[in-house]
Design goal:
With 61 residues, this protein is an alpha+beta fold. The protein has one domain. Helix content is 54%, strand content 18%. A 3-stranded mixed β-sheet has the order 1-2-3.
Length: 61
């Protein structure tokens, strides 16, 4: 999957709270599974785009 396509999917699932883009960990896992993209790819793209992960299932964020 191309980076641009993945970014469009991420942006469609984001929550915007006070100018901060956020994506739930659960939603990141779902996007990964449905689109056959690794979680690390999603993580890298989120970091590049300033997207914060919330409600981390591992307790990391």
């Amino acid at each position: 999957m191309k980076k641009k396509e993945l970014l469009e999917i991420l942006n469609s699932e984001l929550e915007n709270q006070n100018g901060t883009k956020k994506l739930s960990c659960e939603k990141a896992h779902e996007i990964s599974r449905v689109n056959n993209v690794s979680l690390s790819e999603i993580g890298v793209l989120c970091n590049e785009e300033g997207i914060r992960i919330k409600n981390c299932q591992l307790g990391c964020f």
